[in-house]
Amino acid sequence: MSRPGPLGAQPGPEREYLTADLPGAPQRALAELIAGNRRFVTGALRHPHQDAGRRAAVAAEQHPFAVIVGCSDSRLAAEIIFDRGLGDLFVVRTAGHTVGPEVLGSVEYAVAVLRTPLVVVLGHDSCGAVQAARDAVATGTVPPGHLSAVVDAVVPSLRRAQDAGVDELDRIVDIHIAQTVEAMLASSEALAAEVAAGRCAVVGMSYRLAAGEVRAVAAEPAELAGAVAPAA
């Protein structure tokens, strides 16, 4: 029987991908993400899994070790800021990391079918989607076209921030990230079941555009938030 190998190693007959069915998979997946982000911050990039050999290895099937539900902002490219490559991350991006049925279905596919052990909600400081929603609520205007759907999805987070007396944009973004984590778990029985069984974890992170580092905002299980700390 094959044994789990390090994520940086090329899978083969004696290697096994990191999936939800392996012991400690959520914790290992999170540690791998954080290690990659620290390499990105410090400039010690490895660019793993970005060559022709990896392309051939994952052509027939995929086994991503993390789902990234991130903001569509052009400065938030997950494979770059976590120093990963082909087949490593299952990325779903919307403005303001808003979550609808298609996003939840994509996450459930990764978690239930691909057996991915970690889901990350990735927001960032100075989020334009959150600011747009904030402006729309403040002025009572309805954004044109489908932008209104983005605003509507962020409004519950704005209300939560208002109830908490929070007015500063980046603190509102943090609340929105935590709200997204909670909403995903409340809306997806499949995701909640995997988390309850210990086969998956959901972590909310905020990315600092200038510094390039991530920090934890929320996590389920909660103790995993302590594993996400800025690079030294």
UniProtKB/TrEMBL annotation:
It catalyses: hydrogencarbonate + H(+) = CO2 + H2O. One of its GO terms (biological process) is carbon utilization. Zn(2+) binds at residues 71, 73, 124, 127. CDD domains: beta_CA_cladeC (cd03378). It comes from the Bacteria. SMART domains: Pro_CA. Its EC number is 4.2.1.1. Catalyzes the reversible hydration of carbon dioxide to form bicarbonate. Reversible hydration of carbon dioxide. Belongs to the beta-class carbonic anhydrase family. PANTHER family: CARBONIC ANHYDRASE, CARBONIC ANHYDRASE 2. This is Carbonic anhydrase. It comes from Micromonospora craterilacus.
